[in-house]
């Protein structure tokens, strides 16, 4: 029995040492893993997503009865009236009766603003009646439309004036007072200088 005493004692002393060694190895591995993870996090660049502030635009080609036909750049979601305004407004010969001015536009879209079809003159001179300057030139009365008193229905009878421009004319004179001259129509959004010249013989600010 005494021969086994030292062996048992040595084994009992060896087991605690082995446990301490294993525990030390485990702790060392944990510390090493923590340090590696910490450095990896520091070295990893952080990305910040910044929302784009660039507003999307579209390009639209517009032609026909506008002041300056060509390609215009507009913000996404723009409508047909915006393209017309960017092209300098409608000409006096424009016919917008069949157009949806509130329609939204798409990139690379093409617009062609139609022109009014001129109606044939109803006045005929009889070939059997001798030409008499005193009777040939008669004044049928002033048929010009007064832009200071006309309503939407009257303004729409003018070439190139649709419901949108008619409403803008009335809104402008309501905000700024009566038009002093026909040239003042140029201040209305959508009416160009060329259009004013075409309207000049058809409108008045007096009366």
Structure notes:
The chain is α/β, with parallel strands linked by helices. It is built from six helices and five strands; from the N terminus they run αββαβαβαααβ. About 8% of the residues have low confidence. The chain starts with a helix and ends with a strand. The protein is 36% helix and 11% strand. It has a three-stranded mixed β-sheet with strand order 2-1-3, covered by helices on one side. A two-stranded parallel sheet has the order 4-5. Among the domains are: 47 residues, no CATH class; 62 residues, DNA polymerase, domain 1 (Orthogonal Bundle), CATH 1.10.150.320.
Q: Which value, in Å, is the CA radius of gyration?
A: 43 Å
**Can you write the helix and strand succession as a string?**
HEEHEHEHHHE
Q: In one word, what is the shape?
A: rod-shaped
CATH superfamily of one domain: Photosystem II 12 kDa extrinsic protein
Q: In which range does the helix fraction lie? A: 25-40%
Contiguous runs where pLDDT drops below 50 for at least 5 residues: 121-130, 133-139
């Amino acid at each position: 029995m005494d021969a086994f005493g030292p062996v048992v004692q040595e084994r009992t002393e060896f087991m605690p040492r082995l446990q301490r060694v294993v525990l030390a190895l485990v702790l060392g591995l944990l510390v090493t893993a923590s340090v590696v993870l910490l450095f990896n996090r520091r070295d990893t660049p952080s990305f910040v997503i910044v929302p784009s502030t660039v507003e999307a635009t579209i390009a639209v080609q517009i032609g026909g009865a506008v002041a300056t036909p060509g390609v215009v750049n507009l913000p996404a979601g723009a409508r047909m009236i915006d393209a017309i305004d960017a092209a300098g407004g409608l000409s006096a010969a424009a016919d917008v009766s069949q157009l949806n001015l509130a329609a939204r536009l798409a990139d690379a879209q093409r617009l062609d603003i139609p022109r009014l079809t001129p109606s044939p003159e109803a006045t005929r001179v009889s070939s059997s009646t001798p030409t008499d300057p005193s009777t040939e030139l008669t004044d049928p009365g002033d048929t010009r439309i007064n832009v200071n008193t006309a309503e939407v229905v009257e303004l729409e009878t003018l070439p190139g004036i649709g419901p949108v421009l008619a409403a803008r004319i009335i809104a402008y004179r309501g905000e700024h007072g009566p038009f002093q001259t026909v040239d003042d129509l140029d201040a209305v959004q959508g009416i160009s200088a060329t259009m004013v010249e075409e309207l000049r013989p058809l409108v008045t600010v007096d009366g």
